[in-house]
Write a structure and sequence with these properties.
heterodimer; A: about 160 residues; mainly alpha; B: Beta-galactosidase, Chain A, domain 5; Glycosyltransferase; 2 domains; four-stranded antiparallel sheet; about 20% strand
Chain lengths: ~160, ~600
């Protein structure tokens, strides 16, 4: 196991995750757009938000890869299959606590279930498992995160 | 304020437990809307959001629906108004022995740990000594769920599954609580006040407040509404009606997402006792251009932007197709089903969901591209993704405009080639072409858009105009009329001062008009029964008159129409011309949008 493997895996995993989500957008499977959600936390210019969001998403992807690495080191095991399990847990966490509950609380432009008149949100809240963004969203998100975890786990175990 | 107050009068008697639709005022917090009758009863409240299931549903079933009653225990006369510039309602009861005022608000802001949703009713003694009775009868899940009443810390609480309401009262008696309801009496003298607050929760613990916290939130709510309405940028001759309409519209804005519901109720009948009962608690693309136009025209750019962002986000999943309507959370599924409720004055079925969601309505493409055009030409930026989608939508219109559709009125008969749908397809391609010329959307297919627009125009001008009626007609080669054709004038299809438009406006007034009222169309629509006059069409007629150069006629008609709202200035969907009785869902967003649009158009025409 090596930290460089984690960084490489984080980069590759985020690349795959981002591409998968973008493809799902084009296929009308989901309206979830993680870079857009992240970027609009800092700007209301939609174009800039997406550009900034991609950078932030890669940084977040690298950070999660390092967390995976720390846990692998702590338990003394790694591997693509373990990474896939971590990815599944990561996807569930993202769809429930992280994006559904925590992100709306800190995102200045996203509504929460408590947003009241006369305020009005610029971004609709994702809802449980991000279901507000389409019925297929949980499946798409989980599949993409499992792919991410598999790559991170694989890269970490391969790197010496 | 012409529409903010009304002379005191005895409340009209309820018919089999149902108050006239005209008797309802709406209060809300940007998430939920409660409907308050002139006799003080709250007969409609869905929680936690206006498209959730009802906890008070007596509007649709007087026996089992549930309500929150609060009125003097002796005969009384009543007058009402909204506090100026707010959605806080004041109902003043003049009873034997004294005068008492009930102030109703759904709180939006303020100190303390706020409940998930809060409905507060303050009873203020004005003169003498008045005794009132109150009763909260919650019936969760459209009265289909089992509601249990118990106590927490001595406070009465009603629960059903993950939802609960607590009823706290101060300076009020709560001795009439039983297994089915929470209630008691209130005695107030001049200068005294009592307070009853309903705290609601969904998937979280209930929040109990102190009286001071509830009072402070009520005051803060009033100030928040005043600040919002003070920001408007319009001061025309019908300013009070315009700002009341803006406030009614704001009640329908779902603050968590920016979506705008068509109305806050479902299944209030267009035909008393009939089957024309629809769920309007969705956001219609049909209303989008009016919504953005109204917000921009009144200076509410933030609301316009939030709505446009929501609309483009919601429609992403079905691109380049548009659904007729979307849920307030942006979802596209609105499965229609019926509820085993008696219905307003036996008007059944009571529907939730709306099957129109799956119809093809070609006009929506024109309305969405008009919306984008309004948004972009008012200085807002359209990003590359949305620009690409708008261009794809124009391409899609080129492919589908030859299809028959259900039309703007969502007929449930066989799809037809509605003239208004074709006109709006022309509008879609015309606005797309203009956006492309301005460099705001890709222009690769602009020549094709122009060619198809010309083909559509040729079709409309040769097949959809009756030389006999001297008017555009409902569909090709017919003599049926349709008031929605007036939208052609409003959205600049052709020259508004042309002979053809003058003839059409005249024909609509002649054959669909009845005094200031206008019916929607002649001909069948696939649903049994008749309906009243459609208020929106009257306002469209005002705007069409103004834009075609007949400003004085427009002003005269508008003067009549602003007097047709109820005692607090709200409009429903339809009105019975003979009696003035309201029909259909209330408050109807499109009626209020059309009022604002007409007022702005007259002001614009006069200024030109």
């Amino acid at each position: 196991m090596s930290i460089w493997g984690a960084i490489a895996g984080g980069f590759a995993g985020t690349l795959v995750l981002t591409t998968a989500l973008r493809a799902a957008n084009e296929l009308n499977l989901t309206r979830m757009d993680l870079p857009f959600l992240l970027g609009t936390a800092f700007t209301d210019d939609r174009t800039r938000a997406k550009a900034l969001g991609y950078v932030l998403h890669f940084l977040v992807g690298l950070a999660f890869a390092l967390i995976y690495y720390a846990i692998f080191v702590a338990i003394g095991h790694s591997g693509w299959w373990l990474g896939a399990i971590f990815g599944l847990a990561h996807g569930l966490f993202s769809g429930t606590a992280l994006v559904d509950t925590l992100l709306p609380l800190v995102h200045p432009r996203m509504g929460t279930r408590s947003t009241a008149a006369p305020s009005v949100a610029l971004l609709e809240p994702p809802g449980f498992l991000m279901l507000n963004y389409g019925a297929q969203t949980p499946l798409v998100s989980l599949a993409a995160h499992i792919g991410y975890g598999t790559l991170v786990g694989g890269f970490i175990s391969l790197a010496t | 304020m012409r529409n903010s107050t009304a002379a005191e009068a005895e409340p009209r008697p309820r018919a089999a437990g149902y108050a006239p639709i005209r008797d309802y005022a709406a209060i809300g917090d940007g998430r939920a809307v409660a409907m308050v009758a002139r006799d003080g009863a709250i007969d409609w409240l869905c929680l936690p959001d206006l498209d959730s299931s009802s906890v008070f549903g007596a509007l649709l079933d007087a026996e089992q629906g549930g309500s929150f009653e609060l009125c003097p225990s002796v005969p009384y006369r009543v007058e009402r108004r909204y506090r100026p510039g707010t959605n806080v309602l004041e109902t003043t009861f003049h009873a034997q022995g004294g005068v008492v005022r009930v102030v109703d608000a759904m709180t939006t802001a303020g100190p303390g740990l706020a409940p998930f949703r809060e409905l507060a009713r303050r009873v203020e003694g004005i003169a003498g000594d008045v005794s009132l009775r109150w009763r909260v009868e919650p019936r969760f899940g459209y009265a289909q769920a089992t509601t249990r009443i118990g106590r927490r810390l001595g406070i009465p609480v009603a629960t059903a599954g993950a939802r609960a309401v607590a009823v706290q009262c101060w300076n009020a008696d709560e001795s009439a609580t039983d297994r089915l309801s929470i209630g008691g009496s209130v005695d107030v003298r001049a200068g005294e006040s009592a307070l009853i607050a309903l705290s609601a929760s969904d998937q979280e613990p209930l929040v109990f407040s102190s009286r001071e916290q509830v009072e402070a939130r009520m005051d803060a709510t009033g100030r928040a509404w005043e600040e919002w309405s003070a920001a408007r940028d319009h001061d025309g001759p019908w300013g009070d009606a315009v700002i009341r309409s803006a406030l009614a519209l704001k009640l329908l804005v779902h603050a968590p997402s920016g979506a705008v519901a068509a109305a806050s109720t479902t299944s209030l009948p267009e035909d008393i006792g009939g089957e024309r009962n629809w769920d309007y608690r969705f956001s219609w693309v049909r209303d989008s251009a009016f919504t953005v136009g109204a917000f921009l025209g009144l200076g509410y750019a933030e609301d316009a932007r939030a709505y446009f962002w929501w609309l483009m986000h919601a429609s992403q999943l079905t691109k380049p197709r548009l659904r007729v309507l979307y849920r307030l959370d942006g979802g596209a599924n609105a499965r229609e089903r019926t509820l085993p409720l008696n219905g307003y004055r036996a008007s059944r079925p009571v529907r939730i969901g709306n099957a129109a969601a799956m119809q093809l309505q070609l006009d929506t493409y024109g309305e969405l591209l008009q919306t984008a055009w309004l948004y972009a030409t008012s200085g807002h930026r359209i990003d590359a993704d949305i620009a690409r989608r708008l261009a794809q939508m124009a391409d899609f219109v080129c492919r589908i405009w030859r299809h028959p559709d259900a039309g703007i009125w969502e007929v449930r008969s066989q799809p037809r080639h509605f003239t208004q749908s074709k006109m709006m397809c022309w509008v879609a391609l015309d606005r797309a072409g203009d956006l492309a010329r301005r460099g705001l959307i890709p222009d690769r297919h602009a020549p094709r858009w122009a060619r198809e627009a010309q083909t559509i125009q040729d079709f409309v001008e040769t097949r959809c105009f009756s030389q006999v009626k001297r008017s555009y007609v409902r569909h090709p080669d017919s003599d049926e009329l349709d008031a929605s054709l007036l939208l052609g004038v409003l959205f600049s299809y052709g020259d508004p001062r042309s002979e053809r438009w003058a003839g059409t406006i005249q024909a609509v007034r002649r054959e669909l008009g009845n005094g200031p009222f206008v019916h929607r169309y002649t001909g069948e629509d696939g649903v049994e029964g008749s309906e009243g006059a459609f208020l929106t069409c009257s306002f469209w007629l005002v705007e069409a008159l103004a834009r075609s150069g007949r400003v004085e006629d427009a002003v005269e008609l508008m003067d009549q129409l602003v007097g047709l709202g109820n005692d607090v200035g709200l409009y429903s969907e339809e009105i019975e011309p003979a009696t003035g009785a309201f029909l259909g869902n209330l408050p109807q967003g499109l009626s209020h949008l059309a009022l604002i649009s007409a007022a702005l158009a007259v002001a614009e025409t006069r200024a030109a």
